[in-house]
Amino acid sequence: MTISYSLNESRQFRHRSRRLEQDMLLMGALVEQSFRLAHRSLFQREIGIAEEIPKIDRKIDSFYHQIELECAELMAIASPVAQDLRRLSAFMQMVRDLERIGDYAKDISQISLKLFPYPTHPCLPAIEQMSHHARAMLEASLAALANLDRMAGPTIHRLDDDVDRAYDEIYQTLATQTNLQGSIEPTILLALTIRHLERMADHATNIAFRVTFIVTGARQ
User: Phi and psi dihedrals of 28, rounded to 5?
Assistant: First the structure.
């Protein structure tokens, strides 16, 4: 009886764990979609799509609470072995990273609405390139999660260095502008945008390193 119950319990754990992985990837796909729409809203001035992002964000938040609760429950009742415990612990941290990226995407879409009435700022192409880098990092970190790629962390960390350099350069350009005419609101909004992108890249890096932790047990 005890052996039968233990085997059944183990099968249930594996089933719930696989479902968790699937939910994590579904949540990641929603975050990626939200980021992509925010990018289009800001850089291609497709402001109509900004209205779609809060709806996606509500789905992201729902996944966040569901996955966090499921992880906590499994940790409490299943007595997982070391690698499974690492996986659940990492998932609980990853969903926070993903949820924050989704929030920043929503913020950028709102910024795009405020920037729309103003002329295109000279810094916008450089910020667009920064956004491309951050989105590539998110895509790579989600691929690392799907494939449990232990080597992705250092690679994505190097991309994060590029984003950090872009942030410093663009911020310096914005901060040292002279002969400003009219409202300073665009400058403020663009400074917020690059800060959001820099943080999104940081969270993408976190996800990749958490995958390494799942596989190897080693932190950064």
Answer: -60, -40
